[in-house]
Each structure stands twice: as C-alpha cells, then as structure tokens.
Amino acid sequence: MNQVKKVYVVPHSHWDREWYFTIEDSNVLLCENLLHLMDVLESNEEYTGYVFDGQLSIVEEFLKICPEEEERLKRLIRDKRIFVGPWYTQTDSLLVNKESIIRNLLYGTRIGKAMGHCMEVGYLPDIFGQNAYLPSIFKGFDIEYSILQRGIYTDQLNGDLNFIWKSPDGEKVKANNIFLGYGPGKFLSSQTEYVTEKLLPILKKLSAMNKSTDNLLLPAGGDQVLVREAFPEIIKELNKREEDYEFLLSDYETFMKETWNEEGRFNNEIEGELIAPQKSRIHNTIRSQRYDIKKLNNLVENKILCVLEPLAVIGRSLGLKYPKAWLDNMWKMMFDAHAHDSIAGCNSDDTNRNIIDRLTKVNNIADGLLNILKKQLTYAISKNINKDNILVVFNTKPLAIKEIIESVIFTKEPRFSIETLDGKNIAFDIVNQSYLSGGKQIVVTAEGEKEIELPGYYRSVINMEMNNIPPMGYTTLIIKEEGENKEAILKEKGENTITNKYYEVVFNEGKLILIHKKSGQRIEDFMTFEDAADDGDSYDFSPLKGDEPLIIKDSHLLKVEKGSIAERMVMVHRAVLSKDLEERKTEERTTEFEVLTILELRREEEFIRVKHVVNNNIKDHRLRVLFKTPIINPEYSYADQGFSAIKHSTINPYLKDWRERKFAEAPVPIYSLENFAALSDERSTFALITKGIKEYEALENGQLALTLFRSVGVLGKDDLLWRPGRASGINNKVVYTPDAQMMKKLEFEYAVYFSDERFNPQALFRITEKYIEHYASYQKQNLNTFEERLERFEIPMHKEGLPGNYSLFHVDNDRVFMSTCKLAYEGDGVILRLFNPSDTIESVAIHGDKIKKIVKTNLYEDEKEAVKDRVEIPPKGYVTLKIKE
C-alpha cells in the first residue's frame, strides 16, 4: 500500500423532501439551489461532479417549474457532472412493502437513465436502518455497490469500512460505511485552524478504520446545502500543504470503482438487516410513531399490489385498458410518502397532514379504478350469461381461492340466497344488515319535473364461503330474492365462548382463555394491554424515569354473536390513567380510558381475527397489547422482511454496556415487521399478522408485545432515557406537534395464529396471504349507486360479452408466493414476481391458455433468458418473469 492516502472528497446535497418543513418549502428551495449548482458547474470545469442525493423525484419536481432547463440538466447528468438516482425517493426500507422498495428503484433507475445517467451506487445516507434484502434488490438493478451510514456495529466492520453486504438469498454487493455520516467534509477548508483541529483528526480516524486500503471517502455535504463554489480551489490548496494525503474532488461511483479495483482486497462479510444504533441513531421505536400514517400507507400498498394491479392484468387479458398512467402517478405520490422522514412520521403537523392527504388521494384513485374495472367486467359477464342480479368475485392470486369472502349485497327483501351458475347454494352469514330509504328521483315530464318516491332496500354485509374461485380470474354468482330463502343474520347469544375447527376462546371472570383444539394447549389470560408513559419525541419512545407501565386488567364481556360462518366476541378493557406527562409525574390518575376489542373466528380459518377501537383521550403514552405464548424464554423471534423471515434476538448483548460504549441510543430489542412477528420452539408457533402495525417486542417471559401506537407532542427533545444528548433533527428550536398526540378514534386490525408445529415460513406467508385479502367483488344491481363513489356515472362498457368463469393463469406450487403481478414498465408483457421463503429450492410452472412465452428478467425488467418449462426459485429468493400473450 502507498504511504500517501487518497482522500476522495464528494460534494453533495442530502435533500429531505419534507420534514419540519413542507414539500412545497423544499421545492421552492430546490429550484434556487439546482439552478445555482448548474451555473457553478458550467462556469468551472474543475468542479468535476456533484451528487444530488441519489433521488429522481427532485429532478422531476424541478422540471415541473423549470421545464426550459431540461436539456441543460440532461447534459450535466449525461456528462456525470451531476449524479442522480438510483432512487425515486430515499425510502425508509423498514416501513414499506418490499415491492414498494423495488418500484421506487424501478422508477428511479428508468427516469435516471432517460436523463442521461443513473448513479450506479445504492446510496443510503440517512434512512433509519437497512432492509436485509437491499443487496439483492440492488443486484436486481445491476447495481454492484452500496454506500450507507446507519445500522452497523463497529466490531462488525473488523477494521474496514469497506465490506461485502449479503442478503438472505445469498446475493451480495460491495459496500462502504460512511462511518462519520454524510457531512464530515461539509465545511471543508484549507485554513490552518480547520485543517489542524478538524480535518486531520477526521482523516486519522478514517485511516484507522480502513486497514485494507489507503483510499478514504470524505462526504462533503449536508441537508439542503448550497454547492460550495470554492471546493476545487480548496482541494488544490490542501494538496500543496499536506504531504500525507492526496485530495481528489470526486464522486461515489469513482471512489467505489477505484477502491474495489483489486479482487479479494476486502473479504469482511456482513449479512442481512442493519439496525445497530452504535454510531448513528436508528430510532427503533419510530415504527409506532404516527400509526395513522403507517396504517393508511399499508392499506394503500395492499390495495394496489394485492388487488388493483393483478385485477387490471386480468382485465387487460379480456380487452380492457390497463391504467398504467394512473398507476405511475399513484406510485410516485406513494414514494413521496415513503421517504425516511415522511413515512416515519417525524415531521411537523403540517407535513404529516400533507402525507395523509397524499395517501388518501392515492387510495381514492385506487377505489375509482377498481370500481370501473369491476363494473366493466361484470356488465360484460352479465351480457353473456343473460343474468342481471349477479355477484362477481375476483381472485387476484395465482392459486384457486378456498376462503371466507366478505362482500356487500343490495336486495329489495331482507332474505335472499346466493347460487353458483350451476345452481349450487353458497353458505353465508349476514354480518350486518340495514334498511335504506330509496330517496327521491326527479322525472322530467311534459308537465315539468316531478319527484317520485323510490322504494327502500336492504344493504347486507356478508361473509360467504367460497370453495374454488379460479386463479387470476373470477367466478359469477346469482343472487335470488324469491323462493325459500335462509335468514342468516349473526345473532347475539348469551354465551361466553366462540369456537371454530381450530380454536376456542373463552371469557371467564374477566380473563381470556385461548384453547388450541388440535394440541389441547390452553393459555390462560392470553391477551392484556400495557400502557406506559412516553417521555420521548417524534423519533423515539422514552420511558419516564420512575414510571412503571400499567397492565390494564379490568375487562368486561359485552356480547357474543354467532352465525353459521363466523362467531364474534366483543369486550372492553377499562382503566383510569394520567391524562398527560405532567400528571404521570405526580402519579395522579383522573381520566377513564377504554379499549374495545372484537375477536372473530370464521369457519375453516386457521387464525383469530382481532380488531381494537380506541378513542384516545390520553397524551404522552404508549399502548401495547401483550400476548402470553407457550414459548418459554425464547432466544429469538421471527419477523417477515422482504422475501423471507429473519431472526431477531430477544436479548441484545450490547444493551448491558451501551452507555459506557457511548452508543447513539439504547439497542433495545424492539423490532419492525413487514406483516408478521412470531415466537416458536420445537412444539409450537405463536404469530401475529398485522395490517399497518409495524413494531413488536418479544419479551423474555415468552410474551409477544405488539405496539399499537405512541402519543407524543413534540418533534425533538434532548436527553431521553434511551437516547442521550441532543434532540434528533433540529435541536435549536422546539417544534410542537399536537396532532401527534393522536387524540382521535383509532382502529387496529391483526390476526393471531397458533400452531402445534415449529416455525414454518411458508405456513406463515400462506396465513398472511389469506388474512391480507387478494380478492374483490361487485354486484350488478340498480338499488344503490353510492356504495362506490363512481357508481352513479356513465362509463364506456366492454362491447363483447365475457364468460361467467375465467382464469388467466395459475401456478402449480402452493409453497411459492406472488409478490407482484403488473404490466411491464415498457408495456410489452406482464411482470410476475414469485418468491420462496423456505430454506430449500422450490420449482414452479405457470400455466395459462393465453401464455405464448415466459422470459426471466431482472428487477429492471431487462429480459435475460426464456423459460422452457419450470422455474427454480432459490431458498429465501425470488424470480421475476415476463409473460407474453
């Protein structure tokens, strides 16, 4: 190695899309800064390059306001003077769906290349922890390198900031840890005082952390910084005065390529999720901050990925237009909500309102597109089978559905029956039924307008048992209001037990008892609630010193309802709590607090549906639900992340001396989950499958804790019990966030799964797939035009009739799962991504009459090789296929 060390100075701006300021504030500043940056680069050829934070959204925002600057900007990007991409926005990879991460990179890399060049580094300067599958995802876009800041324990580095980062599926990228963050060179200067007191100590530290190379990376930027015009001259001056270092004005691509130019130089391998809070804060408990944002995002992601996109693919195969332009726009709005401050919820109230508004808009568009697709298909089916009062159930999975389906039915009479096209009765329960007025209709006559009173009708929410809905297709049912109709309304029973094939739940003397029928295992008092004071801020939960969490034990059974398909138990937990932090400090309690819980068991379902409703009237607290499990002293838990389940240690060994070692925050064993968390031993598995709840903890006593929500009122706060030192974010101004106290009605949904077998990832993913609905339904009727918002309006209809039952394609292995089915980016086929969460190879074939050719692609959707027969999916891996019709 050379004695002289090369210092790669990388000028950059880290651009937060929104934070304590709004996205509009950001965009106004963006236009000023980017115009100035282009002026500086064009006027000084020695300014070789500038990294504009690796996200393309800011380029699109800039060009909306300054379209006349497009060619100028493209030229600078093409010449690698301005580096953009590969992200559309810097997504928080532990809080969004795996497909959202992939789509973010798909749009970022595609738009970046269209602009002239996309940075070939998976750049992660500031997100709060790294998803275990990021190396694999980067490789799927032919990105060989990653530069990241947060999440690594120093002893993992083994003396080298350059290391190999490995995904659970075995894919690897070459990585660099920006150990001192992305701003150590922000104020770079050649002045003697700066060089002596700041720069040389920084370089000495970096040298000590790079035992295998003399190349040092010095990021020189910060949040929303303006380009430092003097950098080229400062570099010259530094080279004149320093003999031990050679300074180069550079970029991340150049640094990584030149540093990794020798094969085998760096052999330290780090695997999986990176969430260490030693050098940089991870904000582990930010996963429960602003639960309303997380829940809404999860709802929209699932609606698009699980229903809208695959249904649009089904519609396209039958002659309907795929709504690609709409979906492109929707995903970009979603990506703005997925940036690390945005989805985390650690923002001003104004910003968080904008995020909710953005997600609500996407949800509304999704509902409208689904309404149109379902209506067009259903009316075409009705035309062909010559039936009017029909219900079409759409299956958006590549396997036939055998599940309980929820639907809404409108009828003139309270009693009705449902049949298949070949006359077989469908079993169903009426969960809720209401009588609605028909209202009045204006009729134009020769004498003028007249009001006509329309007859009333019934709206019924039903659960129906479906045995064989065709894969990636639909089936048609007939609704009959004549003959001997069965009244199937869920009825209240004076009982204290609900049951199905798998479970029995008993309410006895204020406690819930769970009985697993197959094994006979019985868990007494299996669900309780824990309320704790929260002395933290928008970034982190913090216990209040001296405060003990309260276990809410006062519970009352309200009712039990039973039908032929489902049974429900409704109960309430009550407590008197301190109304805010100040009252907690005095140990006074003055405010009544309630949690309403609905437990539901459906026939043949292997899980218990749980719903909580809280009208939150307490400030500065954290509410968790605690489950007793049969797993004694678990060493680790499981949570799904990406395309498999990963292990989390129940006890973090770094926790015992984190203060002495000067960690940025306490390495508490509180973790994120994508959809489920589980405990397991040799004889049983206990799991929770959630809808938008993103934080859990496995306790040493075998309890599994799910954080429902946090309630705090300030963006940043100094010296938290688990996070010493300055406030996160801005620390010289207090930003109050009363909306973050969550003083409103909150609803939580998840499922409980209990098995007498050891942990099986395929079983958990299968249960998750059943719980997160992959279906839709539509009734052709003329009674109600308000159930879906676009129902009243005329739309163009499919000219041809369609068959009553249909399947586009199916897979022949139920041990693999579909994570996406959509139109290809270029529109030249259907992209199907299948994954295998198990530890062994799985083989699968795709069958469909309309399939002409199947080609393997990477995540960028470049075609690689034709599929002749079956496809092998590696352990914990995935394949991306393009289906051509």
Automatic annotation (TrEMBL):
Pfam families recorded: Glyco_hydro38C2, Glyco_hydro_38C, Glyco_hydro_38N
Keywords: Glycosidase, Hydrolase, Metal-binding
Transport keyword on record: no
SMART domains: Alpha-mann_mid
Xref: Gene3D superfamilies: Glycoside hydrolase 38, N terminal domain (3.20.110.10), Glycoside hydrolase family 38, central domain (1.20.1270.50), Golgi alpha-mannosidase II, domain 4 (2.70.98.30)
PANTHER family xref list: ALPHA-MANNOSIDASE 2C1, MANNOSYLGLYCERATE HYDROLASE
Name of the protein: Alpha-mannosidase
Species assigned in the record: Fonticella tunisiensis
